[in-house]
Amino acid sequence: MALVYHYKILPGKKGAKIKTPSIPVCFPGNSLLKMNVIALVDSGADCSVIPRGLAEVLNLDLTGTKQDSFGFCGKIECIESSVRITPPLHPAIES
After folding, report:
1. For a tag on the chain, would you pick the N or C end, based on fewer CB atoms within 10 A?
2. In 10 A of CB 30, how many CB atoms?
3. What does the DSSP 8-state code read for residue 72?
């Protein structure tokens, strides 16, 4: 069974509307907490990043290798870790 998602329309600068390839996902994390979020899909990326605050809430292992990651917005410091994502637990997030 294939899941099909339509582009989400988000507000942009100066009132513009931007279509983004965003999908609902669930981060089960390494704790009892499960968090549903909207994630931006970058099919050409070598890796994905999440904010450190979300990683801490999910109790991810942040003792991994620190490395610089480069993108169109410049350089950021990342910590290598891993997390499983699943479809959202509650379909209401898709609205």
Report:
1. N
2. 14
3. T
